[in-house]
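go over this record:
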Amino acid sequence: MRDHTKLRAFDLADQLAICVYQATSSFPREEMFGLAAQLRRGAVSVASNIVEGCARSSEAEYLHFLDIAYGSARELEYQIGLAHRLGFLPDSADTALGQRATETAKVLGGLLRSFRKP
């Protein structure tokens, strides 16, 4: 078993989830069950899948959950941009969240590549 708290990817994903929750708290009420909820689920999914992968005993399962986390981080990048284009996120929040999501995805991608090198 691995300790997720020792992974930079987990720290970034955890911070991202907190920032997404803070940013979406000001979304219009009618969006709380729409895009705001989707952003929140996606952000929590990134961190949660890292934790679940670390709890698995095989490397294949670990990588599977890291793959899911990576996909969720990339999906979140799109959703952050969409929320900005719809006017739900100001420029500053879009930039900060987008950068966090991108950095998280890059670190996860690097972690995945480190396991897949021949």
User: Anything to note?
Assistant: The chain has a mean pLDDT of 93. The chain has one domain: 4-116.
